[in-house]
Specification:
single chain; alpha+beta; five-stranded antiparallel beta sheet; four-stranded mixed beta sheet; disordered C terminus
Length: about 800
């Protein structure tokens, strides 16, 4: 704002006003810094004054009566910007006036408690001049905003103060008129301290025998709020909120300094942004939005008057819980505006006829806005990441203050279209009231951008309403089952085992390398590894064993390549090593998904395969700025590195396409309606079920289970998607959710072909029939079908062709396996 010459040439009267620094005592209501000026307390005596700090802004009549005794306020800069700085020479020439007026003003105000007025006045004046004048004003605490990739608001993060700072130019004239009328009628003519208000308050206090009335100006109220804002200890807060002479002296000293460095409009803007308006609303912009659901620029006269009336006592005049009291207070403001000439009587009467209508502000001012977010679990994920980021502070407390009060604007990777598709689908297939949860996470291959994150739950603390705040997308709640076979497949291909690698895979396989000495409840295979169904056995090659998800095949494959090789592949593709650090070399069940993982990490690992073997760390933020519009270094570029060769990754992809077209994922995953690859997973006793898959543009994981205890709450008799499921496999509800959600998410996105197998990797250097059936009656002859779209080179002379070595085997059953 411009400061013109009229402001810089303030009259000498301003110095004496400034020196009456002890003006005002504090209302005890709410413990808040909202001192009412004398003009608002009981209809103050005005003063005929010239040469003020500045004329009211456009629409505020400088000739309007400043008080109820008919005196007139005149003068000002005529431009509405409140003026500029006073010269050093002028201040020095008025030091004597400052000293004298300071002592007299304080003595009068505290007359009931001070007997030696003369000595007190001199001491106060001397002390006043020794006080610091520069007020430290750090940025106001204000909410941080989480945006989607397209700039739409996902949620806001707020601490104890729910504040959105607004620009002074956006504050309408009617709001400024209302607050000046009721809080500081001589705001545009005094120099930070209202001498007439001090005198009148002193007389009333003297008659009462104690300090009953204050005379704090808007500048003084702003100073007190800043001091409270800066307080970090209990003692500092008590000092800032106190009514001691020392505090009043310091408060007024700062107020005078502000008047010499800021325009009136700047002071008013700062005050309206720091003031408390009740119901958790700090700042007039936040109050306008939460009470009326309007932008600050759209405030009406009755709304502005109601807000102006709140600052004196936000709880007493609370329009949500005490609408009648709020209406009475609003009408007082309207009458005061009419008395001062800002509006006429007819306008005031019309505004008073308007009913008090506000939004029930509790939800709007709730501290955890993730609860009302369109992507609540993603909101919670982002918040958790921010609170752990050392770039936002060295300590937990510093980071929390920066995140919740730093006015950050965080543009994230979330795509609203994809989020909506995923959230709608998980809710539609498994209702939010169902004890079974469905979680889906979507990641972009090649960047690691988290595109969506959804759970069929309301994010909240009401467990009786089936709400949860458990971060299911990022918590290792469920075992992944056979979705982990993909990592064993990739490790085997990398080790040189070709797709023609076959094992006789019985319904029960007892491994000497991976002994299981603890029988798990008896059954047909108490000390071994079993397939999903007893009749599921035969000779399988790598592709067919993956399509049908044959456990005993993959246990034998793990014997060949080793458990550490599977663990290494999983961690390179994206599974955190911390989840697998306890896996011993003898734990062969890792090949079929024995260790708990998160949906986020499974989506990330499969995205690596979609990106031809390049892994990118999951990424949630694209850019971030602080309240000063400065960049915040929490948005690094995609961090990607090659995890496995493109040949291995693409060959894995070629195999996983068959899971969807002819394996355990068919037909439900095929509902995606375009080329895709994926893998089903079902854990022991149907405790959880998964589907993880991808297209070239998108990767997603779906986990279904009961988070209250997967082992004790098997997926049996589940009512979902319009029917009852006796038992749930990965190819059932998870594949349904995956196929439907991604079909909707990819609407309008061109379909792309999936990668073909690398001929060299597919052939391998090892393979053939590596185990044979026992010498019992041989099964009926059959051959594994060709890989869709893949040509496998014939092995060398030392390895016969598939047709020559495959013994007879029964046809694979339709049952989906783990």
């Amino acid at each position: 704002m411009q400061r013109d010459s009229a402001f810089r040439a303030r009259a000498q009267r301003r110095a004496s006003d400034a020196a009456a620094v002890a003006a005002g005592s504090d209302r005890p209501d709410d413990g808040l810094a909202n001192d009412s000026g004398l003009a608002s307390a009981a209809g103050t005596a005005g003063s005929a004054t010239a040469g003020g700090n500045g004329q009211p802004p456009t629409g505020m009549d400088a000739s309007a009566p400043a008080a109820d005794d008919g005196d007139v306020v005149t003068g000002g800069d005529g431009g509405g910007n409140g003026g500029g700085r006073r010269g050093k020479r002028g201040r020095l020439s008025r030091i004597g006036l400052v000293v004298t007026a300071a002592g007299i003003g304080l003595a009068l105000l505290f007359l009931p408690m001070i007997s030696a007025v003369g000595l007190f006045a001199k001491a106060s004046a001397d002390h006043y001049l020794s006080l610091p004048a520069e007020l430290v004003t750090p940025p106001l605490p204000q909410i941080s905003t989480i945006l989607a990739a397209d700039g739409s608001v996902i949620a806001t993060l707020r601490g104890q103060e729910n504040r959105t700072v607004v620009d002074g130019k956006a504050i309408p004239t009617v709001m400024r008129q209302a607050i000046v009328s009721i809080e500081d009628a001589r705001f545009y003519t005094h120099g930070g301290v209202d001498v007439k208000g001090v005198v009148r308050a002193a007389l009333r206090n003297s008659a009462a025998g104690d300090v009953q009335q204050g005379a704090s100006t808007l500048a003084q109220q702003y100073v007190k709020n800043v001091l409270l804002q800066n307080a970090r200890t209990k003692q500092q807060r008590e000092d800032a909120a106190g009514t001691s002479l020392q505090r009043k002296l310091q408060e007024a000293r700062y107020a005078v300094a502000l008047e010499n460095s800021l325009t009136k409009d700047e002071i008013l803007e700062r005050y309206l942004n720091i003031a408390y308006f009740g119901n958790g609303n700090y700042g007039v912009g936040t109050a306008a939005q939460n009470y009326f659901h309007v932008r600050i620029t759209d405030l009406t006269l009755p709304q502005a008057a109601l807000l102006a009336g709140l600052v004196q006592s936000p709880s007493l005049y609370d329009p949500v819980n005490h609408p009648d009291a709020a209406r009475v207070r609003r009408d007082v403001v309207l009458d005061r505006m009419a008395e001062l000439g800002y509006i006429d009587s007819a306008t005031a009467d019309a505004a008073k006829a308007t009913p008090v209508t506000v939004v029930r502000a509790a939800a709007a001012a709730a501290q955890d806005s993730c609860e009302t977010s369109t992507a609540p679990f993603f909101c919670d994920f982002v918040r958790t990441q921010l609170l752990a980021d050392p770039a936002l502070g060295a300590t937990e407390a510093e980071r929390a203050r920066r995140v919740h009060e730093g006015g950050l604007v965080i543009r994230t990777t979330l795509q609203p279209k994809i989020q909506s598709a995923v959230q709608d689908t998980v809710n539609a297939v498994i209702a939010p009231s169902n004890p079974v949860s469905a979680t889906e996470v979507v990641i972009e291959p090649g960047t690691g951008n988290v595109l969506a994150m959804a759970v069929n739950r309301a994010f909240g603390s009401n467990a009786a309403a089936n709400q949860t705040k458990e971060p299911l997308p990022t918590t290792a709640v469920f075992q992944p089952g056979s979705t982990f076979k993909t990592f064993a497949l990739a490790a085997a291909l990398e080790a040189g085992y070709g797709l023609n690698t076959q094992f006789y895979s019985p319904a029960c396989y007892v491994s000497k390398r991976f002994p299981r000495g603890d029988p798990r409840g008896g059954g047909d295979c108490p000390t071994g590894f079993a397939n999903a169904e007893p009749e599921e056995s035969g000779i399988y090659d790598m592709s067919k064993a993956t399509w049908d998800s044959v456990n005993t095949y993959y246990i034998q494959l793990a014997e060949k390549i080793s458990v550490p090789a599977i663990v290494s592949m999983a961690t390179r593709l994206g599974i955190p090593a911390s989840y697998l650090k306890e896996v011993s070399p003898a734990k062969g069940e890792i090949a079929i998904g024995s260790e708990r993982v998160t949906p986020l990490d499974m989506a990330d690992a499969y995205a690596t395969l979609a990106a031809h073997g390049v892994h990118c760390d999951p990424r949630y933020v694209l850019s971030a700025t602080d309240s000063s519009q400065q960049n915040v270094d929490i948005a690094p570029a995609p961090s990607c590195q090659r995890a496995v060769s493109a040949g291995v990754a693409d060959t894995v992809t070629s195999v996983l396409t068959g899971v969807i077209t002819q394996g355990t994922g068919y037909p439900n995953a095929a509902a995606i309606g375009r080329p895709a690859a994926g893998k089903t997973g079902t854990t022991d006793n149907y405790s959880a079920a998964w589907f993880v898959g991808y297209t070239p543009q998108i990767a997603a994981s779906v986990a279904v289970g009961n988070p209250k205890g997967a082992q004790g709450n098997p997926l049996k008799g589940v009512v979902a998607d319009g029917r009852t499921w006796p038992r749930v496999f990965g190819g059932d509800l998870p594949a349904i959710i995956w196929g439907r959600s991604l079909r909707q998410a990819l609407t309008g996105v061109p379909a792309m072909p999936m990668s073909k197998a690398d001929p060299t990797v597919a052939q391998g250097t090892k393979g053939g029939l590596l185990s044979t059936p026992p010498p019992q009656p041989a099964p009926a002859p059959t051959t594994a079908g060709p890989l869709p779209g893949v040509t496998i080179a014939q092995p060398g002379a030392t390895t016969p062709s598939l047709g020559a070595i495959l013994p007879t085997a029964p046809p694979a059953t339709a049952a989906r396996s783990r």
